[in-house]
Write a structure and sequence with these properties.
There is one protein chain. This protein has 241 residues and is mainly alpha-helical. It has one domain. 84% of the residues lie in helices and 0% in strands. The two termini are 31 Å apart. The relative contact order is 0.23.
Amino acid sequence: MASWVFILLVGVVAGTLSGVIGTGASIMLLPLLVFQYGPQHAVPVMAIAALMSNIGKMAAWWRDIDWRAFAAYSLPGIPAAALGARTLLVLPARVVDIVLGAFFLLMVPARRWRRVRGLRLRWWQLSLCGGGIGFLTGIVLSTGPLSIPAFVAYGLLKGPLLATEAAGSLALFASKAATFHALGALPLPAIAQGLVIGASVMAGSFAGKAIVQRMSVHAFHYALDVLLVCSGVALVWTAFD
């Protein structure tokens, strides 16, 4: 019981972090779930919790969703996520971690260069990002450090960014979860545990909204850069661990 209470408290904190910068809940929660249940059971539990995390952010920022950006991103991303989930067992995880980690680190100077030049993604470019990120979503735990910069480059910030990215991620994770279920990798106990943990993450999403509403645009960009650096270092470190 004590371990469950601790996991739920961390879930609230993780949901708050994810509610501020758009991602990060999976990075905080998965090590605890692996310790509690083992890696094979922890991944499907986290998949359900991630679904609920995105539902919480969507509910908190419902009126700010950019539905055109959502459609451009998710329509190619949904089948790509299913394909990625089926490819998961074929690719060496270490290679994926190193490539993604290096990419996250390179995104920091790239984002600053793009802001200086005033460059923005068009809807069809966002669609290409949705397909690529969707495929990676099927393979790795979290692609929030990729999807967040994509929507920022499209021109979204703060509430609209968090809402639209959550809607797009929900569509991609639902495709991934459905594929896992079809392959027999999503048992009912994992679904139930994921729903309970996901409820705590959803609660944190609303706390995150209150913080974002008080943040300046400069502080929000700084938080995104910190996220990219931490995610990149963590992935590369895991690959060589």
